[in-house]
Model the fold of this input.
Amino acid sequence: VLTGAGVSAESGVPTFRDAQSGLWARFRPEDLATEAAFRAHPQRVWDWYAERREKLQRVQPNAGHVAVAEFQSRHPDRLTLITQNVDGLHQAAGSPGVLALHGNLYEDAWLDPCALARRPADACAVTLAQPGHPPSCAQCGNLLRPAVVWFGEDLPQPALAAAQAAAQGCQVMLVVGTSGEVWPAAGLAGLARRAGAKVVVLNPEATALDGEAHALLRGPSAQLLPRLLDF
Ligand code: BJW
Done:
């Protein structure tokens, strides 16, 4: 199962590309979801993520997340869950071993290696946030950033490699709630199809991956997934 933002839509989490309610309807991705944007305006980007973190405190997994987790619990090791989502709702629903391709909104990472220690950032230590700046290292000034994958950044290699192996080894891939616009995640559907899997797209709207699908199920995932995975 490969999921995107749409699987969390019925939990009240905005998607990215919905023309009205999507995050990119109000903000330009290049102003917020790139390293260059963070370096240019660290506080603006930090605040945007802080606001999203705060809103996510109030959301719960929906019937779609739960259906996947319950299937995994009934059939251990039969379903690999790959998500582009950073909201942690699959994990909150109880899905084990989620392959999170775009990181985790709740975690932070250091922007740079520690300038003083010339080592990976493990020598850095947080100081209190100063007004106008995200939290930074008291010694070298290194900034904390959200541990998500921005445009132009590599995906976490172990998760991507495991996702590609699962795509190449599966019999069926469900592609749920993603526009299929963002690579390399979008390429997993074609990888599965070329390796012989049946590909089923679940989405209320057309997607860039519909051409890879053997079947298209039009509808919201919180309704479709419980019916599809009820065995
Ligand atoms: C419902 C529903 C309901 C609504 N039920 N469904 C090859 C070709 C072209 C470009 C590239 C390429 N390879 C790499 C690139 C560049 C780039 C990219 O893909 N660009 C394209 C946009 C053109 N990719 C990258 O930069 C990636 N890195 C990379 O490739 O590194 C190597 C490299 C480096 C340098 C140069 C080149 C290569 C990194 C991508 C990182 C994506 N990051 C984000 C932000 C995460 C942090 C944050 O949250 O702020 O990840 S962008 C955003 O898009 C987020 C999502 O995970 C991702 C995918 O979006 P998703 O989930 O599909 O959401 P939507 O909104 O698009 O769609 C929602 C869907 O739900 C819709 O279809 C609705 O209809 C549906 N829906 N309600 C079910 N109830």
